[in-house]
């Protein structure tokens, strides 16, 4: 851990906030991708069942 | 059986991105981790800014991607309006939230840096102000997409909004420049970013920028794939209702 | 073209057309500001040009969804779209009608309300000039927003979100003219830029408005 001096709070909070935001964005995108993929597969399966 | 994807183009897009996406995601992770770790652990403090100089590794790439994200949306909107490729419109839609988050990161890290350096979280500096306006444009664009049910109509309307918005965003940038010069003579708050950065900071910064670019690309591809699937699903369900 | 303009004006002036609502809103905003910031005359004098511009801008915003939504409800929008008159011209006429019923009254009322805010004597002329040049742009931009959201139920809030960022350049230059005018400074630069923005929007934006309107009507 480098010595951040008196600005440690500022630097660490900047990193924490940014990385948290990026993580939320990634997780949200992945979650939505998974959900939509599953829903589409269900619809496709239903369709193939009918044919 | 009819083709799985209603349009040949999305189908090809899906197969290509299926292969490429893991590589881009992996590369972006490597570049991001390496760049940020290099910047955070291995670079010295600036003699004036102290350790807050480390915020640059997040702030500059995020700001860069906030603007480039909008430019990408503009290009994708134009392609949609001219060539009517659905993937293009959906990619623009997928990029908007990513760009908006980048804008927020740039604003927040800027505020956190500004507090100890300028003694204030926020100043109506032209650069800061135009970023706030850019964020408003992102919000309006996302809201318009969300408000319209029909996919093609939404794509058309948001594309035109993106074009008109780009012109006005540019106009606002210059208006804001003008407006603040009227208030503060010789902006003492302006920060020379690229020009002043010494080599020790420059190379990790380049790596971080590369990481952010790849990160943006990977996320947009992932989200575009989601949008394509969602569109395909809507089309199938509409057909089911018709039958 | 003329018939459309006359029709829009008549509809606006008739009871329930919303004519005067914008004016009343403008008045209320200006009355509320001293309650919020305190009655100190020097402060009010300083912020008067900005308050008057914000008030006019919001009053303009208030009536935007009427430009096209009512026509869409009773079907006359489809008639306008299929008429021989190009849609670009029809949209411009609509914007002009909006300006005549909303913008122009605001321009005329602004000096009266300036008295309430203790606007400095030199400022009245430039305030009226800046509003007279700036409000047409507000109407044209607003028509674009209205065309974008005409197909959306309860699109009023979305309309504001879309239009307000587009108002930024007009507001900056317009308020700058009014402020510099009140302080006795030279207004040439912001006035020229405000004029340029207004001319540009009037010339180009109707094409975008007509394009999105066609999309919404198909």
From TrEMBL, chain A:
The keyword NADP does not apply. The chain crosses the membrane at residues 12-31. The keyword Cell inner membrane applies. Keywords: Cell inner membrane, Cell membrane, Cytochrome c-type biogenesis, Membrane, Transmembrane, Transmembrane helix, Transport. GO terms for cellular component: plasma membrane. GO terms for biological process: cytochrome complex assembly; heme transport. It is a single-pass membrane protein. It is found in: Cell inner membrane. Belongs to the CcmD/CycX/HelD family. Required for the export of heme to the periplasm for the biogenesis of c-type cytochromes. This is Heme exporter protein D.
TrEMBL record, chain B:
The keyword Transferase does not apply. Belongs to the CcmC/CycZ/HelC family. GO terms for cellular component: plasma membrane. Residues 5-184 form the Cytochrome c assembly protein domain. This is Heme exporter protein C. It comes from Pseudooceanicola nanhaiensis. The keyword DNA-binding does not apply. Required for the export of heme to the periplasm for the biogenesis of c-type cytochromes. It is a multi-pass membrane protein.
UniProtKB/TrEMBL annotation, chain C:
GO terms for cellular component: plasma membrane. It is found in: Cell inner membrane. One of its GO terms (biological process) is cytochrome complex assembly. It is a multi-pass membrane protein. The chain crosses the membrane at residues 12-37, 43-64, 96-117, 123-150, 157-175, 187-213. The keyword Protein biosynthesis does not apply. One of its GO terms (molecular function) is heme transmembrane transporter activity. Keywords: Cell inner membrane, Cell membrane, Cytochrome c-type biogenesis, Membrane, Transmembrane, Transmembrane helix, Transport. The keyword Nucleotide-binding does not apply. Required for the export of heme to the periplasm for the biogenesis of c-type cytochromes. Belongs to the CcmB/CycW/HelB family. This is Heme exporter protein B. It comes from Pseudooceanicola nanhaiensis. The lineage of its organism: Bacteria, Pseudomonadati, Pseudomonadota, Alphaproteobacteria, Rhodobacterales.
